Amino acid sequence: MSISREGDVVEAAARTISDEALFDHDSAASSCSAKSRMTLLALALGTFCIGTTEFASMGIIQLFSLTLEVDLPMATHAVTAYAMGVVVGAPVLTLVAARLNRRTLLLYLIGIFVLGNVLSAFAPNFALFVFARFVSGLPQGAYFGAGAVVASHVLGAGRSGQAFAIVMTGLTIATIFGSPLATFLGQTIGWRQTYLGIAALGLVSLVSLWTFVPRTAELAGAPILHELSGLRKGRVWLMMVVAALGINSIFAVYTFIAPMVTDLVHLPPRVVPIALALFGIGMTVGNLFGGRLADRHADRGIILGYGCTLAILVVLGLWGANAWILFPVFFGVGATMMAAIPAIQVKMTGLGPESATLMGAMNLASLNVANALGALAGGLTIGAGLGLLSTAWAGFVLTTMGLILFAAFVTARTNQARLTTSGTSGLQSGITIIEKPDGEKPDFRREPLPRLPLIE
Question: Where is this region: Disordered (predicted)?
């Protein structure tokens, strides 16, 4: 594998993150010191590595399925295994390491990431490859949770949406540079070398985190029970279901980009990296826009992201066999769905502020349930003989369910707020009638009504 090529990718990714994510014209970057910017870059490099390994598997799915002698629907189990690794690892690793300083936790997590990718490169059969992908996914959720806490510490209060978007930017940049390059390397020198290259990049990330993440007691961990307290709230679990159902469509499409390009619109395999990069550009644009929107109007971010995605999925399902439509749709799905993800993080952190690391981890766990759902639903419809475009309709159904559930959540919260406001207004107008013996007039007294408690 060409180390110089990897170096170019890292430099280009860092340059893009610096230009687009860290220097927000409105606020955050102008107040950041040079060291703070390097801290954010180090965090984003870690998510760049994570995003590269996650999305590269989808770009080279045809390659490892051929080598390991499984068909395409079966090969999607490797993608699902990675997602399940995230789902399991997010709460387990976050809670096991709850007392660790966030800096130390990040270093351990990247170490596990490197191990998983080395195992993936040397897996002799499909069963062990699936296990290796599971191991590779274990650190992702906890890394995003801890990384969001560190980014929030650097940027300051009131910017949790932008902080999470900066951490996510590494992942979206990976879809522009990392995943297409990994796909290209897989097509030219082999998919096993792709995973070895990703492991090497993980070591670079490890050194960056060691060097630039500050050693401070302000990033100290917390007792396990303190982190668990956020999971006692029903609304947190509801938001996780909203995320798992709604975000799935991004994976229902992305998992099958390669066969859509080669088998649906009959373009050569060398065009697949271009399609992946276009999808990634959309994700990056949507993520940066969504980060700003989330800090102002989180509800609108989710509704707008989900609603626009549904409209674009209809276009894909009806007319995606035309290459001139297919490629703009790749950009559109990535942009609209990613716009909702920072808003989901803001909602979850707001519901469980005392468990910030775990909330970030569980958000990523939810997104990887979405990953598994999208890949599984798409694989099932293809396996049923409905064709590649059926994946758009599979994603449409699940995202619609997520949007309906979130609309019900917002409606219930709004009605409760109105009820609470109505009860509070009675502080000035509540009237109590004091009954008197027969023949006497009743006594009317104004008394305050008790404040109605908010439902957790």
Answer: 430-456
